[in-house]
């Protein structure tokens, strides 16, 4: 079973000399628990031994192949940036979306001795705890782990004095520091005031930076919140619509379908059923280990 859960630690086993193909929606973070195998980027194999870790960008198939000598056992979790609206700034999420398009940088290998792989090992220990009291610790650890990697794809912060900045510079400073949830709840007038410009100029700056209007950006954030509620709760569709910021369930359904290609009810059913993983299925076109 391929799990698309956000910040949930999973385990997979790949039979000897067989392949596991998975295409998750978010950033994939994976560590080898046992055995040897290979990750494939185009036709170039990347060796993975016990303790090694792997980072993979969203939207790109990840292919692992176990050695002929034995089973490959891995742990993995994924991070969906659109569900981190209270953590990421709008600018940071856009930068991560751009980084995900850089095919030549993935998959990213982290050897067993690296700080990332060693911290992942501590996460594995938390995952072995049966008590639910440890789930918050595990989620926080996964966020910390992902931040170690994702910050590598963000530009370094530039500290500038507020005095003497142009409206554009104040805007860029604002969207770099403000988390998306604040962007969602502050009025356009307040956002423009914080940039020291009028509404029309703020709207132009926003569209130039994000390639979309503030209204469109807010609708997108509402729809991603709805996806999370649909997956993590049994709330009625009308309640999901209201909690996501839509006052009319019909409008919510039509916007959801236009954005994701299915209705909220259909999306929930697909997520609950899950998708079959390609674990243990031989692929003759892959090079033998």
If you had to describe this structure to a student in words, what would you say it looks like?
By secondary structure, this protein is of the alpha+beta class. It folds into three domains: 10-153, Jelly Rolls, CATH 2.60.120; 167-211, no CATH class; 215-269, Homeodomain-like (Arc Repressor Mutant, subunit A). It has eleven helices and nine strands. It starts with 9 loop residues before the first strand and ends in a 16-residue tail after the last helix.
What are the key terms here?
289 residues, alpha+beta, Jelly Rolls, 3 domains, five-stranded antiparallel beta sheet, four-stranded antiparallel beta sheet, disordered C terminus
Layout of SSEs?
Layout: E1 10-14, E2 19-22, E3 27-34, E4 37-41, E5 44-48, E6 53-56, E7 62-66, E8 72-79, H1 90-99, E9 108-110, H2 115-127, H3 135-150, H4 167-177, H5 180-185, H6 188-195, H7 199-210, H8 214-232, H9 237-243, H10 249-260, H11 264-273
Antiparallel strand pairs: 1-8, 2-7, 3-6, 3-8, 4-5, 4-7, 6-9
Helix pairs in contact: 2-3, 4-7, 6-7, 8-11
Average residue pLDDT: 82
Percent helix among the residues? 40-55%
Quickly give the CATH architecture of the largest domain: Sandwich
Per DSSP E runs of 2 or more residues, the count of β-strands stands at 9
Structural class: alpha+beta
Beta-strand residue fraction? 15-25%
Supply the number of helical segments. Answer: 11
Compute the number of structural domains.
Answer: 3
The largest sheet, given as strand count, sense and whether it forms a barrel, is: 5 strands, antiparallel
Taken in chain order, the helices and strands follow as EEEEEEEEHEHHHHHHHHHH
- CATH top level of the largest domain is Mainly Beta
